Amino acid sequence: MTDHFAALDQPRRPWLDTEALKECFHRASATWHPDVPGSGDAARFAGANAAYSVLRDPAWRLRHLLELEAPEMLSGASEIPPEFAELFMRLAELRQALNTFQKKESAATQGLARALLIEERQSMLKRVMTLKTDLDSSYEGSLAALQALDAEWEPRAAACIERLAALQQRLAYLSKWRVQLSEALFKLQ
Amino acid sequence: MSLIVGIDLGTTNSLIGAMDAGFPVLLADADGERLTPSVVHFPESGEPLVGRPAARMRALDPSHTVYSVKRFIGRRVGEEADDVAYPLTGAPGTPMRVRVRDREYLPEQISSIVLKKLRADAARALETEIVRAVITVPAYFNDAQRQATKAAGELAGLTVERIVNEPTAAALAYGLDKLHDRARIAVFDLGGGTFDISILELNQGVFQVLSTNGNTRLGGDDIDAALVAACTLPVPDWQKRDFVAAAKHRLSTEEAVEIPLPFATAGESLIYRLTRAELETIARPTVERTRWHCRRALADAKLEPADLDEIILVGGQTRMPLVRSLVAEVFGREPNTSQNPDEAVALGATIQAGILSGAVQNVVLLDVTPLSLGIETFGGLMNVIIPRNSTIPIKAGEMFTNAVSGQQAMLIKVLQGEREIAKDNWPLGEFSLDFERAPKGHARVGVQFEIDASGILHVLARDTKTGVEKVVQVSSAIDVSDEAVEKMLEESLEHAFEDMSGRVFTEAKLKSDELLPAVRSALGRVGSRLTAEEQAQIAAAVAEVEAALAAGEPHRLKRANAALDEATQRLATILVEQAMRTRG
After folding, report:
1. For this structure, is B83 an active site residue?
2. pLDDT below 50 — which residues of chain B?
3. For strand B271-275 and strand B256-260, is the pairing parallel, antiparallel, or unpaired?
4. Do B572 and A115 lie within an 8 Å CB cutoff?
């Protein structure tokens, strides 16, 4: 089983410094990239490349950590944590509303028709920004919990593993939703 | 350590360079020029002309002078509009070909003629044989365009060691003397035919591309086309192209130009006049199209404009003041014009050549693939295997299994693009996987998709039982089904025999159907804020639209729509003001 932590010389822990990780990836590339005469090594570069894309995202990194330490904790399907249900509903509704609104907006080709839609556009933007703030703050909260877990981390301690799995799930959902909302915001602006 | 040259094979101009004592140097031809126009002219007899002599023939003999062929390299018929002065040919779905003097040429064959000249120029300048080369392409070129460019090099007798992305090359040229620094930069590359925007992080000699976006059909040629369309002088279009382009160039430094035309009709001399303001009005829609791509690249890199240290301008079209002011507006800072917009890409290609040959040390390029790579699933959706902006070289594996007991083969369609529905993406090609006979789900073949450092796809299939690996040929010539060809032919016939005035009326009616309810709604909301005279004007305009609709008169309806649109402008303004106020 590939060990992405080892590929980039990183300790197998929940938390890591993303700037330091990037620096590590750059140094690894400067040595192992296939173009570098002498030290170039296609297989090691591929390993570093794959490791970097997994380790830099908290949700993927935690997933990988579980794969290595406690693969039995990775369930196939997972339910949305109940405290997230409201966020999920708001996101789903907003994306639908945005979709409808954008269809209306692209059908309006003339100045007057577009002017009629301006107020609705502004209220859409406001809803998006409000939800973004809430998602971001949930995400930051989960990251803070992750750092706390890291401070008390004992590999293979059952309690730690359980907290890790729960955090992994939360971060996975929140990441995915933040991406979806970013996309929606991009299309709107 | 054998020599590798760097080549910028541009839409309009091409250049070649080599490393000399640690510096990239561009090589001049026998006339001392570093720029070679990417133009090939086929005279009635004898060898084709290349470069400046060919460019001179553009206005004199347009149908035998091939220019901007980069627009068609790697493209299939139907993918690109063929509004050039020379004839293009090919059946729908097959590679586009140029037809000159009763012979057909693939675009890569034309490009190879330009590359042969560059190769000869370099050989003369360096007094050595030139074999190995690095050639640049727009970052947003797809797999077929990259492969065709590589083929062009091979046809010219070159071993193409690498295909490099143009904005990345420009970043190399910019950053070569800043290897101890750290910076985040954007490269805005607007050339004759293509546009790219790349965002990079420079860190102690590592050049990492964070994201790239662009449009391979957006460039100075589009501005020229708009100028040609706007020019009312009684001169054929193919002659207009040259003087509008000259005017456009001069207006980067002058406020107004007058160009006397040499081909005067009997006794009458013609003058082409254009002001910078007029040019900007005509060019603005084209330049504005770059904005979305800049936003997209920033979003993909998860950066805001303020996070960047420099915006580097590359490509001849960035000399235009309008382009510079758009860049300043989008990125919130004045662009960096320290790089020669015509030469930066070639210098960068030369540096990459130096990296590969060992002449340049301590520099490493981490480029990305610009388009998501995926396969079509059973339900017609795109299943992404390698996402866009993944650092290359990169491999990804997929396991395929037989869906039906005894199934012997499975057709896999490979695509590049960002759309959810597979057929909305660009079809790279397809390949067939062989299964040994087995119960459903028991025959398994592992497929490895690799995008190499040139951004080109290689596919390997591995039988999980025997472990035998074989290279999979992804074929792209047979993409268009018979049905699709028939449909394309039908549609083109439809347009040919369409009732023109019927079409005008239908279009105008669509406008009225949108305008009338909008006017009613707007009047309901803010109508009371209008003067009695304004309200009467609008009522009259509405009545005229309704009358024209009832009478079924297409041009009358068109005029009536326009009049109503104008009469309701004040309404639109009031609505916007109101919205701005309630926003608080």
Report:
1. no
2. 477-499, 584
3. antiparallel
4. yes
Q: What is the pLDDT of residue B566?
A: 83
Asked if the Cβ–Cβ distance from B364 to A49 is below 8 Å, we say no
Say how far apart CA B386 and CA B391 lie, in whole Å: 10
Q: What is the pLDDT of residues B184-228, one digit of tens each?
A: 999 999 999 999 999 999 999 999 999 999 999 999 999 999 999
Cα B441 off chain centre by: 43
How far is it, in rounded angstroms, from Cα B173 to Cα B338?
10
Closest residue of chain A to B368, computed from CA coordinates: A49
DSSP conformation letters of A7-42: HTT--S-S---HHHHHHHHHHHHHHHSTTSTTT--H
DSSP state of B71: G
Asked if B452 contacts B393 with a C-beta cutoff of 8 angstroms, the reply is: yes
According to DSSP, the residues that pair with B365 across neighbouring strands are B207
Instruction: Find tokens 């803010």 and name the residue.
Output: B526
* Pair of tokens at residue A118: 């301006």
Determine the Cα–Cα distance for residues B460 and B473; give it in Å rounded to an integer.
9
Would you state the pLDDT for residue B173?
97
Q: Write down the pLDDT at residue B550.
A: 86
Task: Find the DSSP H helices in chain A.
Answer: 4-7, 18-32, 42-55, 58-69, 85-107, 111-116, 118-151, 158-188
Q: Check residue B491 and give its pLDDT.
A: 46
What pLDDT is attached to residue B93? 84
User: Is B452 one of the annotated active-site residues of the chain?
Assistant: no
A115 part of contact set with chain B, CB < 8 Å: yes
Residue B77: alpha-carbon gap to chain centroid: 16
Inform me whether the C-beta atom of residue A111 falls under 8 Å from chain B C-beta atoms: yes
State the DSSP code for B421: B
- Residues whose CB falls within 8 Å of the CB of residue B224, separated by 6 or more in sequence, listed in order: B241, B244, B245, B248
Q: Of A26, A115, A189, which is closest to B203 when you measure between CB atoms?
A: A26
Structure tokens at B316: 């001849």
Q: In which residue are the tokens 């040139």 written? A: B454
Which stretches of chain A drop beneath a pLDDT of 50? none
Catalytic site includes residue B224: no
pTM listed for this prediction: 0.85
| Chain B residue set in contact with A, beta carbons under 8 Å | 203-206, 208, 295-296, 299, 355-356, 358, 362, 364-366, 390-391, 393-395, 453, 511, 514-515, 518-519, 521-522, 525, 565, 568-569, 571-573, 575-576, 578-579, 582-583
**Distances from the Cα of A60 to the Cα of A52, A77, B259, B301, angstroms:** 11, 16, 62, 18
pLDDT computed for residue B3 by the predictor: 95
Give the active site residue among B108, B121, B143, B189. Answer: B189
What number is the ipTM of this complex?
0.92
pLDDT value for A76: 63
From B383, B488, B479, B369, select the one nearest B427 (Cα to Cα). Answer: B479
Which two three-digit tokens encode residue B485?
């060809």
Q: What per-residue confidence (pLDDT) applies to B143?
A: 94
> How crowded is residue A31: how many other Cβ atoms within 10 Å of its Cβ?
16
Catalytic residue among B8, B108, B196, B544: B8
Look up B70 and say whether it is catalytic: yes
| Chain-centre distance for alpha carbon A20 | 18
Residue type, A183: E
Measured CA to CA, the distance from residue B23 to residue B533 in angstroms comes to 73
| Contact predicate B218/B194, CB 8 Å | yes
CB contact under 8 A, A46 and B365: no
pLDDT of residue B302: 95
User: Which DSSP letter does residue A65 get?
Assistant: H
Q: Give me the pLDDT at residue B502, please.
A: 64
Q: CB–CB of B19/B348 below 8 Å?
A: no
Q: Report the pLDDT value the prediction gives residue B479, as an integer from 0 to 100.
A: 38
- A23 CB neighbours in chain B (<8 A) are 203
Over residues B25-47, the pLDDT tens digits come to 999 999 999 999 999 999 999 99
> β-strand B256-260 against B394-401: which pairing, if any?
unpaired
Q: CB neighbours of A72 closer than 8 A, spacing ≥ 6?
A: none
CB B423 within 8 A of CB B413: no
